[in-house]
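Appendix C: a fully annotated inverse folding record. The material below is reproduced so that readers can follow the format used throughout the book. The structure is listed first as tokens, followed by the designed sequence.
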């Protein structure tokens, strides 16, 4: 039983299937990058992301073709580079709004999120996917618009890399919740280690078929579904 005030959710591998992201969302963004760079280079978010790609490449003069090549290489290797995620977020948000895309949540997730929310547990999202992508993902679920369940949205741009404790300190400060009252749910042991190093409670989600299932989550508490995570809240100061 976790005695906490808030739960912070990873998406891919935790609330939702990695296979869906890789097989549906990645091709959708890949086929639209060229047009995005070509037609909307003046959009401030696109411009900022392109500058970040050039920085990461160490090529300040990289043209649109070279930028697109880098984006495709990161997609191939599933590198969660912030500018890739920003540009994917723009394309996906439009795809969700247009009805081309509907997100995926494992069957156990939405009923448990609704229950925790009703019980007064605050819910936040922390994903490598950009905040724009996260919001679109929760807005367009098969169970309807889930955004009202979520209090805060964090990504690698507003919080930092997911495997660095500093990112979790930043989220705790922004969320206004003491580290020990925050529970992070993720499939990746490196992320759970970083959250724990920042003083958070942690639980690894291990779903058969997910990339980190075999590796496991080390000595973190673990569950196969959200039903396996007991939470009570509103008892700050108790010893459990
Ligand atoms: C709606 S977010 C899309 C998924 C994605 O691109 C991603 O990188 C998710 O990574 P996570 O940190 O949630 O494992
Ligand atoms: Mg994940």
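Designed amino acids, in order:
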């Amino acid at each position: 039983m976790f005695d906490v005030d808030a739960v912070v959710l990873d998406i891919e591998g935790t609330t939702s299937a990695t296979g869906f992201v890789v097989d549906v969302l990645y091709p959708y963004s890949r086929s639209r990058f060229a047009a995005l760079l070509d037609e909307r280079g003046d959009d401030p978010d696109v411009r900022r992301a392109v500058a970040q790609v050039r920085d990461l490449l160490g090529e300040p003069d990289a043209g649109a073709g070279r930028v697109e090549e880098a984006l495709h290489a990161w997609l191939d290797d599933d590198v969660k580079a912030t500018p890739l995620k920003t540009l994917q977020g723009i394309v996906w948000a439009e795809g969700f709004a247009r009805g081309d895309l509907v997100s995926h949540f494992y069957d156990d997730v939405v009923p448990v999120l609704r229950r925790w929310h009703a019980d007064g547990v605050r819910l936040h999202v922390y994903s490598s996917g950009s905040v724009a992508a996260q919001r679109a993902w929760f807005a367009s679920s098969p169970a309807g618009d889930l955004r009202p369940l979520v209090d805060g949205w964090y990504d690698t741009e507003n919080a930092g890399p997911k495997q660095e404790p500093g990112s979790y300190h930043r989220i705790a400060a922004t969320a206004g919740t003491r580290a020990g009252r925050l529970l992070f749910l993720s499939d990746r042991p490196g992320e759970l280690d970083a959250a724990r190093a920042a003083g958070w409670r942690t639980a690894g989600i291990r779903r058969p078929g997910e990339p980190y299932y075999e590796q496991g989550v080390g000595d973190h508490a673990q569950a196969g579904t959200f039903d396996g995570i007991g939470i009570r809240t509103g008892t700050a100061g108790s010893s459990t």
